């Protein structure tokens, strides 16, 4: 692995017919040839069969959009993956992810270092991603706070071994201390001694007392990460029980599952997206996925 810090990632403009995967590469081979291998193998792969390759196959191949070489065998490659390969309907999250990462990219030792450094989407794809339902401005509006106010967040600790009433007591104390958002710890996974609905009900009552006494509003985000169908069921139940936010770990739940939850009509509260797990695949230096890809 390299013992130096990778340079700043070059910036490429979107292209209309493809999404770009930006890869940092270190190879003992020719950098352009390595980029061409990625474009081929991470898109359609080599043509097989006795007949000549078809025009459709040719249009489905990735291509090397650009290479920014820093030194021989070291630099960045922008690979263009055709938008036409993506699903006709539904979320493109999973398909984009599979094109960027799921081929032989990290399976074959054709380069010393391979790192997905950035992703650039065209406007046609960006339209499929509506962004946070609330975002910063919407969360401030829920709290009745202007853009100049300094916001404070808190995490319920310890992350396990607490009853619903003990969680509620900690949340009430934090709220009276001026905290604006409280989330469960990711280790709070709704065990039998602290089930989701009992915890949400207890916390909601405590936070209503604080608001009645002080006027301080607090967003509480219980942890609902799980199998997609069960996560949606838990999230709906939590909101009905008084949760004013939700927390989901995106690595355990998946990007498409997060998008499903965000767009559901019965879970219209801010979602705290927990990123625990990214360091396992994004730790510099070396192979993996840069944290900017998840940001």
From TrEMBL:
GO terms for molecular function: magnesium ion binding; ribulose-bisphosphate carboxylase activity. InterPro entries: RuBisCO, RuBisCO_lsu_C, RuBisCO_lsu_C_sf, RuBisCO_lsu_fd_N, RuBisCO_lsu_N_sf. Residues 16-124 form the Ribulose bisphosphate carboxylase large subunit ferrodoxin-like N-terminal domain. One of its GO terms (biological process) is carbon fixation. Residues 136-295 form the Ribulose bisphosphate carboxylase large subunit C-terminal domain. Belongs to the RuBisCO large chain family. This is Ribulose 1,5-bisphosphate carboxylase. It comes from Candidatus Segetimicrobium genomatis.
């Amino acid at each position: 692995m390299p013992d130096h810090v990778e340079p700043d990632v070059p910036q490429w403009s979107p292209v209309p017919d493809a999404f770009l995967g930006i890869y940092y590469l270190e190879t003992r081979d020719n950098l352009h040839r390595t980029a061409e291998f990625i474009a081929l193998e991470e898109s359609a792969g080599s043509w097989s069969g006795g007949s000549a390759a078809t025009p459709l196959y040719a249009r489905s191949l990735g291509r090397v959009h650009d290479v920014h070489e820093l030194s021989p065998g070291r630099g960045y490659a922008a690979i263009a993956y055709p938008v036409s390969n993506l699903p006709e309907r539904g979320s493109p999250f999973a398909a984009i992810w599979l094109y960027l990462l799921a081929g032989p990219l990290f399976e074959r030792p054709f380069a010393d270092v391979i790192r997905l450094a950035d992703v650039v989407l065209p406007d046609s794809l960006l339209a499929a991603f509506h962004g946070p339902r609330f975002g910063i401005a919407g969360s401030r509006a829920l709290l009745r706070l202007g853009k100049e106010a300094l916001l404070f967040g808190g995490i319920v600790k310890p992350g396990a071994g607490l009853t619903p009433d003990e969680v509620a007591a900690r949340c009430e104390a934090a709220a009276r201390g001026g905290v604006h958002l409280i989330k469960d710890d990711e280790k709070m996974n709704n065990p039998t001694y602290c089930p989701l609905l009992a915890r949400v009900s207890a916390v909601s009552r405590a936070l209503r007392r604080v608001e009645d006494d002080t006027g301080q509003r607090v967003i509480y985000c219980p942890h609902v990460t799980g199998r997609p169908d069960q996560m949606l069921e838990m999230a709906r139940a939590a909101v009905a029980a008084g949760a004013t936010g939700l927390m989901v770990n995106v690595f355990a739940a998946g990007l498409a599952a997060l998008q499903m939850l965000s767009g559901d009509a019965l879970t219209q509260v801010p979602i705290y997206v927990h990123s625990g797990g990214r360091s396992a695949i994004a730790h510099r230096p070396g192979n993996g996925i840069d944290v900017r890809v998840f940001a």
